[in-house]
């Protein structure tokens, strides 16, 4: 079925990983974006999302994550957990360290309060306020995909030892 390898043309389906603790939001994003021709992966929390970033065979082009991801009630906090439960911004930082060139879109139901409480300046990352309309979601994803892949859009707090500045 792959007619043209090598170049990712606009017909090539981009893969989007949507992360939200509310299943209806995941279902909505999935339905809207699949309807627009995107390939969807989904996770109900940052732990699942990090697992997918690490283990998914194919490309992941965009991480669309809710900013506030409460931990699952039954999950025990463990410092040795390879896939810890973190908020959406921390998830974005970790995910871009796992996958270079990953584009990030944050979403939130209360942007002003939540962005400020996470120390994120408006305008630093593409942002989707909930509730959102279909066209707004699709337009934002397309805009983000049209931009060159970021070298590292979010400032990591700690660089991995082998993560040198060979790009850019």
Topology:
Elements: E1 15-19, H1 23-35, E2 39-43, H2 46-55, E3 62-66, H3 88-98, E4 103-108, H4 111-117, E5 127-129, H5 134-146
Parallel strand pairs: 1-2, 1-3, 3-4, 4-5
Helix pairs in contact: 2-3
* Name of the CATH architecture of the domain at 28-71 and 83-146: 3-Layer(aba) Sandwich
Order of neighbouring strands in the sheet with most strands = 2-1-3-4-5
Largest sheet composition: 5 strands, parallel
Order of helices and strands: EHEHEHEHEH
- The first-to-last residue Cα distance is 34 Å
Structural class: alpha/beta
Overall geometry: globular
Summarize this entry quickly.
The protein is of the alpha/beta class and 168 residues long.
What does this molecule look like?
By secondary structure, this protein is α/β, with parallel strands linked by helices. The chain has a domain at about 30-70 and about 85-145: 3-Layer(aba) Sandwich (Rossmann fold), CATH 3.40.50. The protein has five helices and five strands; from the N terminus they run E-H-E-H-E-H-E-H-E-H. The chain has helices at about 25-35, 45-55, 90-100, 110-115, 135-145, and strands at about 15-20, 40-45, 60-65, 105-110, 125-130. It has a five-stranded parallel β-sheet with strand order 2-1-3-4-5. Helix 3 (about 90-100) links the parallel strand 3 and strand 4. Helix 2 (about 45-55) packs parallel to helix 3 (about 90-100). The longest helix has 13 residues, at about 25-35. The model is unreliable at about 1-10 and about 155-168 (pLDDT under 50).
